[in-house]
Specification:
With 401 residues, this protein is an alpha+beta fold. The protein contains 12 helices and 13 strands. The longest helix is centred in the last third of the chain and has 23 residues.
Length: 401
Amino acid sequence: MSYLPIERLEQLRIGTVGFVSPSEIRVSLEIDSPDSVSLQGGSPRNFPRINSYVLINSDDGFLVGQVEWIAVEHSPYPKRRGLQDFGLIDLPFPLKKLSINPVGTLRSDRKNDGFKFTRGTDAFPSVGDSVLLPTDQQLNSIIESGENRRVKIGDSPLANNAEIKIDPDKLFGRHIAVLGNTGSGKSCSVAGLIQWSLDAVLQQGQTPNARFIILDPNGEYSRAFGPKSKYKGNLLRVEANSDYGELELKVPSWLWNSSEWGAFTQASSKVQLPLLRRALRAMRNDVLSEDDVTIQAKHFCGILLVSIRQLASQGQIYVNGGHAKGLVESLTSWETSLITLNEKIHNQPFNSVISTINTYLSSRRGAQWPAKPEVSDTDKLISELKEAHVGKRPANTSFIC
């Protein structure tokens, strides 16, 4: 049986437009629209479904929309065409609604006896316009649109298994997002896109010249592209296992600023972040705290400064002979260490503090109970140690003390 074009459109009609905006169109479905499977398009098809396509009449063809969500809204019982429902009680009626995202325009292509799909639209529909189900031919025109479609990557179950082909130049030359629900195969799709592209080059007897950098926090791609795969990729890990061909991940200190390093390491703002900034500053100036003798000596002076301040604040060295004797023994040991460090530094910056300690010890060496220090003695020691600890830093040098 053949139908007139108007009769054919009436069979494909599933609802009307109830709301229009630049980013969303809402549709009220007819009460006799398909609940799960539609036969109007020419073959059995699941409808309504998320990501399926519908058509809306426009000035120069059809506006193509993609279903974003499906809902049920309690509305007055809809008036059916040609029927008068005088005896019905006006109770809330569950009316199905769709939200559609406009994606493009489908126009008639008379040269090829088909349709041509283009992105975007010149005019939006009006409230009350009819919403139609696309036929198989129209679905194929939507899915198989585009030029230079050279690489087949799969079939579309939503479009009667239409072939999905891509232009690899556009795919890898622009931004692309692979979206889907959990377990829908996003990781496999990404791995397949890369593998199929490399295999296509290898089948032509050429050496692939492409470079792919995969950030894999979940470890999903190590088997597909690792050192033991046929692609022989470099696998970098923070804790590398050399037995499996893994390489240790080393990030240069100049890669990020201190704020980015703090966010990456999740350093606490009060304790860890200041130390991290000092370490980064020292590394950027080619100064390492473990190897630089000047930094080690200044750090040692800082420890002595804290110790002598603590002894002076407690006050026992001024009144207790045992504490005064302990101070002499400590200063003797400190003097020896400072002399050793001072000899390793070219400009010998600790001569003054060594001289002050030596002057204090000169009248107290060998005594069983040395004289107790005066406040002026400890103040001078604190001043000299503070100057040795802070001092003038060489140009382009940062110290961690």
